[in-house]
Amino acid sequence: MITNISIDKLYSHPKNPRQDLGNLSELTESILANGVMQNLTVVPKTDDDGYFVVIGNRRLAAAKKAGLKELPCVVSNMDEKQQQATMLLENMQRSDLTPYEQAQGFQMCLDLGMTEDELSKQTGFSKKTVKHRLNMLKFDAEEVKKTVVNGASIQDYIDLEKVKNDDTKKELLQYMGTTDFRYRLNSAIETEKIEKKVNQTEKKIALFAKKVEDRDLDRKKYTYLQFYRSPEDVKEEGFKERKEYLYTRSTYGINVYGSVSEEEVNDKAEKEEKRNKIITELENLFKTAQQTRIEFIKNILNDKTASHRDVFYTEAIKILSTKSYSSFDAKLFKKIMECDIKESLNKNNAEKVFEATVFASLEESHPLSCYSSWSGEYNERKAQQMNEYYKFLISIGYQPSEAENQLLDGTHKSYPASAEK
Protein backbone atom coordinates (compact mmCIF):
# COMPACT_ATOMS: atom_id res chain seq x y z
CA MET A 1 0.00 0.00 0.00
CA ILE A 2 1.35 3.45 -0.99
CA THR A 3 1.54 6.03 1.80
CA ASN A 4 2.62 9.68 1.61
CA ILE A 5 5.33 10.24 4.21
CA SER A 6 6.81 13.58 5.30
CA ILE A 7 10.21 14.08 3.65
CA ASP A 8 11.61 15.07 7.06
CA LYS A 9 11.05 11.50 8.24
CA LEU A 10 12.84 9.90 5.28
CA TYR A 11 16.56 9.11 5.51
CA SER A 12 19.07 7.74 3.02
CA HIS A 13 19.92 4.16 3.96
CA PRO A 14 23.30 4.10 5.79
CA LYS A 15 24.27 0.83 4.14
CA ASN A 16 23.36 1.72 0.60
CA PRO A 17 26.22 0.32 -1.55
CA ARG A 18 25.92 3.31 -3.84
CA GLN A 19 28.04 6.00 -2.18
CA ASP A 20 28.04 8.53 -5.03
CA LEU A 21 24.52 9.54 -6.10
CA GLY A 22 25.87 11.26 -9.19
CA ASN A 23 24.51 14.40 -10.85
CA LEU A 24 20.94 15.03 -9.60
CA SER A 25 20.19 18.10 -11.76
CA GLU A 26 18.19 16.31 -14.47
CA LEU A 27 16.19 14.27 -11.96
CA THR A 28 15.46 17.37 -9.89
CA GLU A 29 14.17 19.20 -12.98
CA SER A 30 11.93 16.23 -13.82
CA ILE A 31 10.49 16.16 -10.29
CA LEU A 32 9.83 19.91 -10.38
CA ALA A 33 7.98 19.48 -13.69
CA ASN A 34 6.15 16.20 -13.13
CA GLY A 35 6.48 15.25 -9.47
CA VAL A 36 7.71 11.88 -8.25
CA MET A 37 6.43 9.32 -10.75
CA GLN A 38 7.50 6.21 -8.83
CA ASN A 39 7.09 5.45 -5.13
CA LEU A 40 9.96 4.81 -2.74
CA THR A 41 10.37 1.58 -0.77
CA VAL A 42 11.19 2.23 2.88
CA VAL A 43 11.63 0.35 6.16
CA PRO A 44 10.87 1.72 9.64
CA LYS A 45 13.77 2.95 11.74
CA THR A 46 14.08 1.26 15.12
CA ASP A 47 15.05 4.31 17.16
CA ASP A 48 12.29 6.79 16.11
CA ASP A 49 9.27 7.16 13.83
CA GLY A 50 11.42 7.80 10.74
CA TYR A 51 12.16 5.54 7.77
CA PHE A 52 15.24 4.39 5.83
CA VAL A 53 14.92 4.40 2.04
CA VAL A 54 15.73 1.01 0.53
CA ILE A 55 14.72 1.87 -3.05
CA GLY A 56 14.76 5.48 -4.22
CA ASN A 57 17.72 7.16 -2.51
CA ARG A 58 18.39 9.34 -5.58
CA ARG A 59 14.72 10.33 -5.77
CA LEU A 60 14.82 11.31 -2.09
CA ALA A 61 17.91 13.51 -2.60
CA ALA A 62 16.45 15.13 -5.74
CA ALA A 63 13.05 15.71 -4.08
CA LYS A 64 14.74 17.52 -1.19
CA LYS A 65 16.53 19.75 -3.71
CA ALA A 66 13.17 20.35 -5.45
CA GLY A 67 11.59 21.42 -2.15
CA LEU A 68 8.93 18.66 -1.87
CA LYS A 69 7.33 18.14 1.55
CA GLU A 70 6.27 14.50 1.26
CA LEU A 71 6.84 11.50 -0.96
CA PRO A 72 4.80 8.41 -1.92
CA CYS A 73 6.26 5.33 -0.19
CA VAL A 74 5.64 1.64 0.30
CA VAL A 75 6.54 0.60 3.84
CA SER A 76 8.21 -2.82 3.89
CA ASN A 77 9.11 -5.14 6.76
CA MET A 78 12.22 -6.53 5.01
CA ASP A 79 14.92 -7.77 7.39
CA GLU A 80 18.42 -6.35 7.16
CA LYS A 81 19.68 -9.06 4.81
CA GLN A 82 16.77 -8.51 2.43
CA GLN A 83 17.29 -4.74 2.53
CA GLN A 84 20.93 -5.11 1.60
CA ALA A 85 20.25 -7.51 -1.25
CA THR A 86 17.43 -5.31 -2.59
CA MET A 87 19.58 -2.16 -2.64
CA LEU A 88 22.43 -4.02 -4.25
CA LEU A 89 20.22 -5.59 -6.90
CA GLU A 90 18.43 -2.34 -7.72
CA ASN A 91 21.65 -0.43 -8.31
CA MET A 92 23.26 -3.23 -10.25
CA GLN A 93 20.32 -3.59 -12.58
CA ARG A 94 20.66 0.10 -13.38
CA SER A 95 24.48 -0.14 -13.75
CA ASP A 96 24.75 2.52 -11.06
CA LEU A 97 27.54 0.94 -9.04
CA THR A 98 31.26 0.93 -9.66
CA PRO A 99 32.94 -2.51 -9.35
CA TYR A 100 34.38 -1.45 -5.99
CA GLU A 101 30.93 -0.38 -4.70
CA GLN A 102 29.58 -3.71 -5.90
CA ALA A 103 32.30 -5.42 -3.90
CA GLN A 104 31.36 -3.44 -0.78
CA GLY A 105 27.71 -4.38 -1.29
CA PHE A 106 28.60 -8.05 -1.69
CA GLN A 107 30.62 -7.97 1.52
CA MET A 108 27.77 -6.33 3.43
CA CYS A 109 25.47 -9.13 2.29
CA LEU A 110 27.99 -11.77 3.36
CA ASP A 111 28.38 -10.05 6.73
CA LEU A 112 24.62 -10.37 7.17
CA GLY A 113 24.87 -14.13 6.64
CA MET A 114 24.11 -14.43 2.93
CA THR A 115 26.13 -17.09 1.09
CA GLU A 116 27.94 -16.55 -2.20
CA ASP A 117 25.40 -18.86 -3.87
CA GLU A 118 22.55 -16.71 -2.59
CA LEU A 119 24.38 -13.56 -3.71
CA SER A 120 24.81 -15.01 -7.17
CA LYS A 121 21.11 -15.92 -7.45
CA GLN A 122 19.90 -12.58 -6.05
CA THR A 123 22.11 -10.34 -8.18
CA GLY A 124 22.41 -12.38 -11.36
CA PHE A 125 26.22 -12.30 -11.19
CA SER A 126 28.19 -15.54 -11.49
CA LYS A 127 30.00 -16.85 -8.42
CA LYS A 128 33.26 -16.17 -10.26
CA THR A 129 32.34 -12.51 -10.73
CA VAL A 130 31.33 -12.24 -7.07
CA LYS A 131 34.76 -13.59 -6.05
CA HIS A 132 36.55 -11.19 -8.40
CA ARG A 133 34.70 -8.23 -6.90
CA LEU A 134 35.34 -9.35 -3.32
CA ASN A 135 39.05 -9.64 -4.05
CA MET A 136 39.12 -5.89 -4.73
CA LEU A 137 38.36 -5.29 -1.05
CA LYS A 138 41.81 -6.59 -0.14
CA PHE A 139 43.20 -3.24 -1.28
CA ASP A 140 42.96 0.19 0.30
CA ALA A 141 39.85 2.02 -0.97
CA GLU A 142 41.76 5.22 -1.73
CA GLU A 143 44.39 3.34 -3.70
CA VAL A 144 41.68 1.63 -5.75
CA LYS A 145 40.09 5.01 -6.52
CA LYS A 146 43.45 6.26 -7.80
CA THR A 147 43.78 3.28 -10.15
CA VAL A 148 40.30 3.96 -11.54
CA VAL A 149 41.28 7.58 -12.21
CA ASN A 150 44.42 6.30 -13.98
CA GLY A 151 42.28 4.16 -16.27
CA ALA A 152 42.44 0.73 -14.59
CA SER A 153 39.80 -1.78 -15.72
CA ILE A 154 38.09 -4.60 -13.89
CA GLN A 155 40.11 -6.96 -16.13
CA ASP A 156 43.29 -5.48 -14.65
CA TYR A 157 42.06 -6.50 -11.20
CA ILE A 158 41.09 -9.96 -12.43
CA ASP A 159 44.56 -10.43 -13.95
CA LEU A 160 46.18 -9.14 -10.75
CA GLU A 161 44.76 -12.21 -8.99
CA LYS A 162 47.27 -14.32 -10.95
CA VAL A 163 49.91 -12.93 -8.57
CA LYS A 164 49.92 -14.84 -5.27
CA ASN A 165 52.13 -12.63 -3.07
CA ASP A 166 50.08 -9.91 -1.34
CA ASP A 167 53.02 -7.50 -1.03
CA THR A 168 53.71 -7.84 -4.76
CA LYS A 169 50.05 -7.14 -5.50
CA LYS A 170 50.15 -3.95 -3.45
CA GLU A 171 53.31 -2.87 -5.27
CA LEU A 172 51.70 -3.53 -8.66
CA LEU A 173 48.63 -1.55 -7.65
CA GLN A 174 50.51 1.73 -8.01
CA TYR A 175 51.21 0.94 -11.69
CA MET A 176 47.65 -0.13 -12.54
CA GLY A 177 46.20 2.04 -15.28
CA THR A 178 49.69 2.98 -16.58
CA THR A 179 51.65 1.63 -19.54
CA ASP A 180 54.04 -0.12 -17.12
CA PHE A 181 51.36 -2.28 -15.50
CA ARG A 182 51.22 -5.16 -18.00
CA TYR A 183 55.01 -5.53 -18.18
CA ARG A 184 55.39 -5.50 -14.40
CA LEU A 185 52.45 -7.87 -13.94
CA ASN A 186 53.87 -10.43 -16.38
CA SER A 187 57.29 -10.10 -14.78
CA ALA A 188 55.81 -10.77 -11.32
CA ILE A 189 53.85 -13.78 -12.62
CA GLU A 190 56.99 -15.24 -14.25
CA THR A 191 59.03 -14.61 -11.09
CA GLU A 192 56.49 -16.52 -9.00
CA LYS A 193 56.51 -19.40 -11.49
CA ILE A 194 60.29 -19.62 -11.22
CA GLU A 195 60.17 -19.38 -7.43
CA LYS A 196 57.59 -22.16 -7.27
CA LYS A 197 59.78 -24.42 -9.41
CA VAL A 198 62.87 -23.60 -7.34
CA ASN A 199 60.91 -24.40 -4.15
CA GLN A 200 59.94 -27.79 -5.57
CA THR A 201 63.53 -28.45 -6.64
CA GLU A 202 64.89 -27.45 -3.23
CA LYS A 203 62.40 -29.72 -1.48
CA LYS A 204 63.75 -32.76 -3.37
CA ILE A 205 67.42 -31.81 -2.96
CA ALA A 206 66.96 -31.19 0.77
CA LEU A 207 66.36 -34.94 1.15
CA PHE A 208 70.04 -35.56 0.30
CA ALA A 209 71.87 -32.30 0.97
CA LYS A 210 72.19 -29.65 3.65
CA LYS A 211 71.46 -26.00 2.89
CA VAL A 212 74.22 -23.41 3.47
CA GLU A 213 74.72 -19.77 2.56
CA ASP A 214 77.34 -18.90 -0.07
CA ARG A 215 79.43 -17.04 2.49
CA ASP A 216 79.58 -20.15 4.72
CA LEU A 217 80.65 -22.58 2.00
CA ASP A 218 84.20 -23.92 2.42
CA ARG A 219 85.28 -24.32 -1.19
CA LYS A 220 88.44 -26.17 -0.18
CA LYS A 221 86.40 -29.01 1.31
CA TYR A 222 83.51 -28.97 -1.14
CA THR A 223 83.52 -28.95 -4.92
CA TYR A 224 80.80 -27.63 -7.19
CA LEU A 225 78.85 -30.45 -8.85
CA GLN A 226 75.67 -29.30 -10.60
CA PHE A 227 73.03 -26.61 -10.98
CA TYR A 228 69.43 -27.85 -10.68
CA ARG A 229 66.67 -25.75 -12.21
CA SER A 230 63.77 -28.22 -12.23
CA PRO A 231 62.60 -30.90 -9.76
CA GLU A 232 62.50 -33.41 -12.63
CA ASP A 233 66.31 -33.12 -12.89
CA VAL A 234 66.86 -34.32 -9.30
CA LYS A 235 67.61 -38.05 -9.13
CA GLU A 236 68.43 -39.96 -5.94
CA GLU A 237 71.30 -41.84 -7.63
CA GLY A 238 73.03 -38.52 -8.20
CA PHE A 239 73.66 -38.20 -4.46
CA LYS A 240 75.46 -41.43 -3.66
CA GLU A 241 79.07 -40.92 -4.76
CA ARG A 242 80.09 -38.30 -2.19
CA LYS A 243 80.27 -38.58 1.57
CA GLU A 244 78.36 -35.34 2.08
CA TYR A 245 76.38 -32.87 -0.04
CA LEU A 246 75.61 -29.19 0.48
CA TYR A 247 73.50 -26.80 -1.55
CA THR A 248 72.98 -23.08 -1.94
CA ARG A 249 69.88 -21.45 -3.35
CA SER A 250 69.86 -18.80 -6.07
CA THR A 251 67.04 -16.95 -7.80
CA TYR A 252 66.79 -19.47 -10.64
CA GLY A 253 67.79 -22.77 -9.09
CA ILE A 254 69.92 -24.79 -6.69
CA ASN A 255 73.72 -25.15 -6.71
CA VAL A 256 74.89 -28.50 -5.31
CA TYR A 257 78.34 -29.16 -3.86
CA GLY A 258 79.93 -32.43 -2.76
CA SER A 259 82.63 -33.13 -0.19
CA VAL A 260 86.05 -33.79 -1.71
CA SER A 261 88.48 -36.57 -0.86
CA GLU A 262 92.08 -35.99 0.22
CA GLU A 263 93.21 -37.18 -3.21
CA GLU A 264 90.98 -34.59 -4.89
CA VAL A 265 92.30 -31.85 -2.59
CA ASN A 266 95.87 -32.67 -3.52
CA ASP A 267 95.00 -32.89 -7.22
CA LYS A 268 93.20 -29.54 -7.05
CA ALA A 269 96.15 -27.93 -5.28
CA GLU A 270 98.52 -29.29 -7.92
CA LYS A 271 96.32 -27.94 -10.75
CA GLU A 272 95.98 -24.58 -9.02
CA GLU A 273 99.75 -24.32 -8.63
CA LYS A 274 100.24 -25.18 -12.31
CA ARG A 275 97.59 -22.66 -13.34
CA ASN A 276 99.09 -19.89 -11.19
CA LYS A 277 102.47 -20.53 -12.76
CA ILE A 278 101.01 -20.26 -16.27
CA ILE A 279 99.02 -17.14 -15.36
CA THR A 280 102.05 -15.45 -13.84
CA GLU A 281 104.17 -16.22 -16.91
CA LEU A 282 101.47 -15.00 -19.32
CA GLU A 283 100.73 -11.91 -17.27
CA ASN A 284 104.40 -10.92 -17.42
CA LEU A 285 104.41 -11.44 -21.20
CA PHE A 286 101.23 -9.38 -21.64
CA LYS A 287 102.55 -6.58 -19.44
CA THR A 288 105.76 -6.50 -21.44
CA ALA A 289 103.78 -6.25 -24.68
CA GLN A 290 101.60 -3.51 -23.24
CA GLN A 291 104.59 -1.53 -21.99
CA THR A 292 106.16 -1.78 -25.47
CA ARG A 293 102.95 -0.44 -27.01
CA ILE A 294 102.73 2.40 -24.50
CA GLU A 295 106.34 3.46 -25.22
CA PHE A 296 105.43 3.61 -28.91
CA ILE A 297 102.30 5.62 -28.09
CA LYS A 298 104.33 8.12 -26.06
CA ASN A 299 106.66 8.63 -29.00
CA ILE A 300 103.66 9.13 -31.30
CA LEU A 301 102.20 11.77 -28.98
CA ASN A 302 105.50 13.63 -28.88
CA ASP A 303 106.02 13.38 -32.64
CA LYS A 304 105.69 16.88 -34.13
CA THR A 305 105.83 15.74 -37.77
CA ALA A 306 102.11 14.86 -37.78
CA SER A 307 102.75 12.22 -40.45
CA HIS A 308 100.39 9.80 -38.74
CA ARG A 309 97.52 12.24 -38.03
CA ASP A 310 95.22 11.43 -40.95
CA VAL A 311 95.39 7.69 -40.32
CA PHE A 312 94.99 8.19 -36.56
CA TYR A 313 91.76 10.12 -36.78
CA THR A 314 90.08 7.95 -39.41
CA GLU A 315 91.12 4.51 -38.14
CA ALA A 316 91.09 5.13 -34.38
CA ILE A 317 87.59 6.57 -34.36
CA LYS A 318 86.39 3.72 -36.58
CA ILE A 319 87.66 1.16 -34.05
CA LEU A 320 86.22 3.08 -31.10
CA SER A 321 82.77 3.19 -32.68
CA THR A 322 82.57 -0.61 -33.03
CA LYS A 323 84.90 -1.90 -30.33
CA SER A 324 83.93 -4.15 -27.43
CA TYR A 325 86.99 -3.26 -25.37
CA SER A 326 86.72 -1.99 -21.82
CA SER A 327 85.80 1.66 -21.40
CA PHE A 328 88.29 4.48 -20.95
CA ASP A 329 90.69 3.83 -18.09
CA ALA A 330 92.07 6.87 -16.22
CA LYS A 331 95.00 4.85 -14.84
CA LEU A 332 96.11 3.88 -18.35
CA PHE A 333 95.78 7.50 -19.43
CA LYS A 334 98.05 8.54 -16.57
CA LYS A 335 100.51 5.81 -17.54
CA ILE A 336 100.62 7.12 -21.11
CA MET A 337 100.74 10.83 -20.26
CA GLU A 338 102.57 10.44 -16.92
CA CYS A 339 100.03 12.77 -15.29
CA ASP A 340 96.25 12.82 -14.87
CA ILE A 341 93.76 14.38 -17.30
CA LYS A 342 93.42 17.68 -15.46
CA GLU A 343 97.19 18.18 -15.33
CA SER A 344 97.49 17.09 -18.98
CA LEU A 345 95.00 19.72 -20.11
CA ASN A 346 96.96 22.37 -18.24
CA LYS A 347 100.33 21.28 -19.64
CA ASN A 348 99.55 20.03 -23.16
CA ASN A 349 97.44 20.94 -26.14
CA ALA A 350 93.96 19.45 -26.54
CA GLU A 351 94.94 17.36 -29.56
CA LYS A 352 97.54 15.43 -27.60
CA VAL A 353 95.15 14.84 -24.71
CA PHE A 354 92.49 13.60 -27.12
CA GLU A 355 94.85 11.12 -28.74
CA ALA A 356 96.00 9.84 -25.35
CA THR A 357 92.35 9.39 -24.38
CA VAL A 358 91.74 7.30 -27.52
CA PHE A 359 94.75 5.10 -26.79
CA ALA A 360 93.65 4.66 -23.16
CA SER A 361 90.26 3.49 -24.45
CA LEU A 362 91.76 1.03 -26.93
CA GLU A 363 94.15 -0.51 -24.44
CA GLU A 364 92.75 -3.20 -22.13
CA SER A 365 93.05 -2.12 -18.49
CA HIS A 366 94.18 -5.56 -17.34
CA PRO A 367 96.79 -7.18 -19.60
CA LEU A 368 95.57 -10.73 -18.87
CA SER A 369 92.18 -10.02 -20.45
CA CYS A 370 93.74 -9.08 -23.79
CA TYR A 371 94.31 -12.51 -25.28
CA SER A 372 93.17 -15.18 -22.81
CA SER A 373 90.59 -16.27 -20.27
CA TRP A 374 91.38 -16.14 -16.56
CA SER A 375 92.49 -19.77 -16.75
CA GLY A 376 95.24 -18.75 -19.16
CA GLU A 377 93.61 -20.46 -22.15
CA TYR A 378 93.99 -18.59 -25.44
CA ASN A 379 90.75 -16.78 -26.30
CA GLU A 380 90.30 -16.26 -30.02
CA ARG A 381 87.56 -13.63 -29.65
CA LYS A 382 89.60 -11.45 -27.27
CA ALA A 383 92.71 -11.89 -29.39
CA GLN A 384 90.75 -10.79 -32.47
CA GLN A 385 89.80 -7.56 -30.68
CA MET A 386 93.45 -6.93 -29.88
CA ASN A 387 94.41 -7.83 -33.43
CA GLU A 388 92.28 -4.93 -34.70
CA TYR A 389 94.15 -2.63 -32.32
CA TYR A 390 97.49 -3.95 -33.55
CA LYS A 391 96.47 -3.36 -37.18
CA PHE A 392 95.77 0.25 -36.24
CA LEU A 393 99.15 0.60 -34.45
CA ILE A 394 100.97 -0.94 -37.44
CA SER A 395 99.21 1.55 -39.77
CA ILE A 396 100.89 4.38 -37.85
CA GLY A 397 104.34 2.77 -37.71
CA TYR A 398 104.35 0.15 -34.94
CA GLN A 399 106.39 -3.04 -35.50
CA PRO A 400 105.26 -5.92 -33.23
CA SER A 401 107.78 -8.46 -32.00
CA GLU A 402 107.62 -12.16 -32.83
CA ALA A 403 106.42 -12.88 -29.28
CA GLU A 404 103.54 -10.43 -29.72
CA ASN A 405 102.50 -12.07 -32.98
CA GLN A 406 102.53 -15.48 -31.27
CA LEU A 407 100.45 -14.15 -28.37
CA LEU A 408 97.98 -12.81 -30.91
CA ASP A 409 97.61 -15.98 -33.00
CA GLY A 410 97.68 -18.42 -30.03
CA THR A 411 100.92 -20.19 -30.96
CA HIS A 412 103.02 -18.91 -28.04
CA LYS A 413 104.50 -21.76 -26.00
CA SER A 414 103.30 -20.24 -22.70
CA TYR A 415 99.64 -20.93 -23.46
CA PRO A 416 98.51 -24.14 -21.65
CA ALA A 417 97.38 -25.88 -24.84
CA SER A 418 100.71 -25.13 -26.56
CA ALA A 419 102.70 -26.28 -23.53
CA GLU A 420 100.96 -29.66 -23.57
CA LYS A 421 101.77 -30.32 -27.26
| Rg from Cα | 39 Å
Total number of beta strands: 9
- Strand residue percentage: 5-15%
Helix content: 40-55%
Order of helices and strands: EEHEEHEHHHHHHHHEEEEHHHHHHHH
Total number of helical segments? 18
How does the helix and strand content classify structurally?
A: alpha/beta
N-to-C span: 110 Å
Structure description:
The protein is of the alpha/beta class. The strands form two sheets. It has a five-stranded mixed beta sheet with strand order 1-5-3-4-2. A four-stranded mixed beta sheet has the order 6-8-9-7, with helices on one face. 54% of the residues lie in helices and 10% in strands. It contains 18 helices and nine strands.
Quickly describe the structure.
This protein is an alpha/beta fold and 421 residues long. 24% of the residues are buried.
List the helices and strands and how they pair.
Elements (H helix, E strand, L loop, with lengths): L1 E5 L3 E3 L12 H10 L5 E5 L6 E5 L1 H10 L3 E6 L4 H14 L5 H13 L4 H8 L3 H9 L5 H10 L3 H7 L5 H8 L7 H25 L4 E2 L10 E7 L16 E5 L4 E6 L2 H41 L6 H14 L7 H8 L3 H7 L2 H13 L17 H16 L6 H8 L6 H5 L1
Parallel strand pairs: 2-4, 3-5, 6-8
Antiparallel strand pairs: 1-5, 3-4, 7-9, 8-9
Helix pairs in contact: 1-2, 3-4, 4-6, 12-15, 12-16, 13-15
